[in-house]
Specification:
Layout lengths: L4 E7 L2 E2 H8 L5 H7 L13 E5 L1 H9 L1 H5 L6 E7 L6 E4 L3 E5 H14 L1
Antiparallel strand pairs: 1-2, 1-4, 3-6, 5-6
Length: 115
């Protein structure tokens, strides 16, 4: 099955997008901006999200932004996720899929209350 999987990159359990933004050293700002210009930034309301890369996004990330992330983020791990397990999709394009984790928590809490 083509494109069955998505990929999430983490450092110490935190997504590289969140950690990268928070820990970005000033001397790498220009390089990181250049290396991520290919990736659209979705306009999302405040909340908790998981960002997954498609196969195409993974290939592009690994040849661009990952090289910058490795300069300042420790122990970057790649997680391979079955696309069917991502339920609360709030945004997607050819490079990425964004899951609304706030909605997932709310849904789980409602299910706990109902049962």
């Amino acid at each position: 099955m083509k494109n069955r999987y998505l990929y999430r990159y983490t450092t110490k359990g935190e997504g590289v997008w969140s950690a990268g933004k928070r820990l970005l050293p000033q001397y790498l700002v220009e390089e990181v901006l250049k290396n991520k210009k290919w990736l659209p930034k979705p306009n999302l309301p405040k909340g908790k999200y998981h960002f997954y890369l498609t196969e195409k996004g993974k290939e592009k990330y690994e040849s661009t932004l990952l090289l910058s992330h490795k300069k300042y983020l420790p122990k970057i791990r790649k997680e391979k996720i079955d696309k069917k397990t991502v339920k609360n999709i709030i945004y997607q394009d050819e490079w990425q899929i964004v899951e609304n984790m706030s909605a997932k928590v709310l849904l789980q809490n409602k299910l706990l209350i109902l049962t």
